[in-house]
Amino acid sequence: MYTATFEDLLQRVAPLITKRDTPFRQAIVSGERLAITLRYLATESRLRSAVSRLNVSRNTL
To answer: Which residues, in sequence order, are CB contacts of 56 under 8 Å at separation 6+?
Structure first.
């Protein structure tokens, strides 16, 4: 995927996927959240392998 395409898609979905930080944890930024989702959908792999490549805990999704 081209960077411009990713940025356009992110701009469209960011209001829907953006989470807030809490006193207990920092939220995953919307760009990382989108990248994880796209990798998961593109590779048809397990969610665990999609998040392990981006160093994000599965529980945080």
So the answer is: 28, 32, 36
